Amino acid sequence: MIEQGVSKQEIFERTKQTVGLYKVNFDVYEGETFVLMGLSGSGKSTLLRCLNRLIDPSDGHILVDGDDIATMDDKELREARRKKMSMVFQGFALLPHRTVIDNVAFGLEIQGISKEERYVKAEEAIAKVGLKGYESSKTSQLSGGMQQRVGLARALATDPDVLLMDEAFSALDPLIRSEMQDELIALQDKLKKTIVFVSHDLDEALKLGDRIAIMKDGVIAQIGTAEEILTNPADDYVSEFVAGVDRTKILTAENIMKRPDPVVSINAGLTVALQLMKKHGMSSIFVVDPDKVVKGILCVDAAAPASKEKKEIKDVMKTDISIIAPDIPIKEIIPIMAEDALPIAVVNENKKLLGVIVRGSILSALAIKEED
Amino acid sequence: MVLPELPIGETVESGVYWLNDNLGFLMDIFSDIIDMLISGFKDMLLFLPPIVFIALITIFVYLISKKNTKLAIGTAIGFLLIDSMGLWKLSMETIALVLSSALVALLIAIPTGILAAKNETAFHITKPILDFMQTMPSFVYLIPAVIFFGLGNVPGLVATIVFAMPPAIRLTNLGIRQVPVELEEVATAFGTTPLQKLIKVELPVALPTIMAGVNQCIMLSLSMVVIAAMIGARGLGYQVLVGIQRVDIGQGFEAGLAIVIIAIVLDRLTQNLTPKK
User: Where are the transmembrane segments (chain B) (predicted)?
Assistant: First the structure.
């Protein structure tokens, strides 16, 4: 009906059924963490459940390694659920009558794997999530954070390609949540699973997601990396959505640096340097060698008297300058700026100058968003 | 205006006679099975001398109730009291009747409850039947039971089974329906077959509720087995009935006390079997 151009409201009135999702198209790349992000009712959890068909989509395709989950018969679907994808739930959903290790081994048990073998694998998974020693505990004795570790271990035990995580950390208190996020990132660095993570918390999405899809009313409003979404929101909804984000955590040196222009060569004379500064109205200038490697910074108040004494740039430039890598977040740049009034050089791993950050660039980067 | 008189009573009566005439052989087989069951339990319970049996049951209760000393001592005292009142044989007969009827009732009730939980049509069919079974006065069951099976233990047991089944069906159905959605999703998401889901997730999670149904079933069996003495079921109920007919207060009270003791022990025992959350 949607394809015939009927509105969602009209479909509801005519069929008493709500359109949960439509025109949802996205790729998740192998080994990435893909976050489905949106407010409640936006269809993110429904979309996740369509991926393993806990909810059957009425139309469309779900391709994993080229196999279409949407058209599988019961047997193929069971096989895919057992081997290819596993799921972590918001309310942990541990089986109350089982111990930790029997919960973790659940997926393997379903596959009909022998007890010894599944316990070996389950113990590995328990160690991965840092619960060694709790194997025979009852799940009700564990704290929320630990229970969700069991949930995560259960999902990892079957060694699936895809992990579906439905608001996995939303039920945890903020401190534990943040801790679990860090651990998931660390685990993911090692395991390189393909993760589809549902979240209503934008900070969480930005922290975990290699890419993020922002959903609204069953459609995807925007897909992109954290920076893309923050710096270039696709529509008003997205920009409103990201308005409250702490940009200093997300934007990096690379996003706010200015082109390193002009710079002065270390072999040039002081007069040239002074002239460049005067022309561009700057009080300092970076000194580079012919390979654009930063050597130091020359300040006007040091350069002016020195030029009369016929000194060279390398005699008067300051060499203890602040240099940072391009992926440092603004949050960490601010304290450096506060200590030292001089501009900061952004350099690559070979110390080649990529850009400069002055106080004004941080302020304008943060201010732009307020205007939107 | 005069309302036409509907022949409901006559229809049911002729239906019962028709069943008896045409399905009599099935009734006979059923009757034999139940008779075997009862005498099996009875022989088992009366195999040992009372003192040895009481000692064994006390140890059994102690172990199964996770070292509940009070319950074990209470059981020992209660059974010793029954023996000293000279009601041992009759009591064991009553317990045999209760165990047989509860066993048959549960064998029917639990699968029916599972079916009702899984299938909406089955649920809508069983619901009014259960309401009917539970609200119909229990004495009414005794009449067709007598027609089908004559007088004795078997018709008493059949009436008891019918009477004791509904709560077990209801609570099994309820327990499975109350399994949290997320746990159902866990089972599905990890690729269970419907049978694996039932055995590994739904039944264990529903077990406390199902056990409450088992407890109810046993307690109702006990209460009905006593009433079933009216159609010739043996045991303590018969003793009570004789007490009433002769206005023998002492005899009636002793039998009643024995029934209370048995009821308490069976109740505590089944409650202790229920896993705690």
Answer: 44-64, 94-117, 138-165, 205-231, 252-270
